[in-house]
Design a protein that fits this description.
Blueprint lengths: L3 E3 L7 E3 L5 H19 L8 E3 L5 E3 H12 L1
Antiparallel strand pairs: 1-2, 3-4
Helix pairs in contact: 1-2
Length: 72
């Protein structure tokens, strides 16, 4: 997604292959989590922390959930 990709060395790493935005990384995290849940039934939590523009820090999956709720 954009310049973000899952690392070929370890599936738990997301790398910027060039030009990835924060949105690209968050979208890739969302895609991976949804696909794992679809295939296994397991909803993964995120170790990655997101720092919001106002300085709040949260797990990236919570930032995704917050962002998606604000769009609905």
């Amino acid at each position: 997604i954009g310049g973000a990709m899952v690392s070929p060395r370890h599936a738990n790493f997301i790398v910027n292959a060039g030009g990835a935005s924060c949105g690209d990384v968050l979208s890739l995290i969302d895609l991976v989590r949804r696909e794992v849940e679809r295939r296994t039934g397991y909803r993964m939590a995120c170790e990655v922390r997101y720092v919001a523009p106002d300085g709040r820090m949260m797990p990236a999956h919570q930032a995704l959930d917050t962002d998606q709720n604000s769009r609905s």
